[in-house]
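Predict the 3D structure for this chain.
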Amino acid sequence: MIVSNGSGSVAAGGSVPVSFGAALRFWSLLGWISFGGPAGQIAIMHRELVERRRWIDEDRFLHALNYCMLLPGPEAQQLATYVGWLLHGTAGGIAAGVLFVLPSVFILLGLSYLYAAYGTTASITGVLWGFKPVVVAIVAAALLRLGRSALRRRIDWGIAAAAFGAIYFFEIPFPLIILLAGLAGWAASRRRPLPAAPGDPNPPAPAAATSARAGGGAARPQWDRARFRARAARVSWIGAALWLAPLAALAAWRGGDSLHVQAYRFFTQAALVTFGGAYAVLSYVTQAAVSTYGWISHAEAIDGLALAETTPGPLIMVVQFVGFLAGWHHAEGMQPWASGVLGAAVTSYVTFLPCFLFIFLGAPAIEALRGQRRLRAALGSVTAAVVGVILNLALVFGAAVIWPHGLEGGPDGAALALGAAAFLPLRRWPLGVPWVVVGGGLIGLGRALWLG
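Done. Predicted structure below.
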């Protein structure tokens, strides 16, 4: 819920008020330093928003994260949109969501052109090498902090361990893990009460209580079915118009059977039906783009994921790379670069448009029902499962960075030292993540220049 302090700035959950201008500056910066996929991006937001700036409290952050983990699409970008909406309403959500992805749009667009035109991105390898150990440190520090906050019950520890084992040893799909965790939390709430989170201004309330007080002295919005239904209809109509108008213009310009119209429809479908992050998206997109449409090759799809993993922003940006190459290879009367840029723009637009709609449709209801004991228990168990999934990501990503040639090849001593050096200030000192990330990039650049 949003609480006005009477001076043009707002606070979420009784935390430090923040002006819209200060939030814009932060969201603008976040898009440039969001490395490491969802685990690293969530870690950065938790440290900066909850711990360092105190713009949102721990419980509200985890509540938003729980909801975003249930949605298709990039959960970190949706989390930024949710927090932006909490702080400054619809304008804040749009600003946060757009600025989170905008830098990666332009960076990956440039890299896609270099890849298509010259077939190499070796010139930036050094800087990107320096980012990776820092991201491992960020994820490890976030894992400790989130685990301490989220694992408050014995069942939470069990769910986290089960989630880790399911994804690490048995490769069970991520959406199924989240669904089972939520059901376990829901069932457990019927037998025992859910403990309040430390510092939670909205402890779990009985089902009949609908007017619990939030920080700042304002009442939590009650569940008004008619009001929420009207708002959902309004958001849905706006979303439909934002989807249909560009499609109609594109069909009138390029033709209904053109590559760009096909991409518009296909990547809309991909954004709506794919769960489990960029790897699940890549599997689905690769099958269609390679086998069904013949837009790209398997090797190009893998190269696109590698580029997306080493640039800021959501890993789902790999679909923009696919859209660019599809346009480059099938220009249909345009210059290859122009067709590629149009393909990238179409792909990014339809990929992220549903993300905003999911937040603006669902977040108000999720906030209004935040005091419901069973819903809170189910979402809390989702967070516990996320801790186990983040542990899996930390181990997999850490192994790839520290042991790039496998255990037989031995560790990369320089990467290990850089990761350890980054972990200490993240855990012990109030040094901002941007400085640590920039420092890692500069060290990587210096290393590349030294090695020649």
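The first strand starts at residue 2 and ends at 4.
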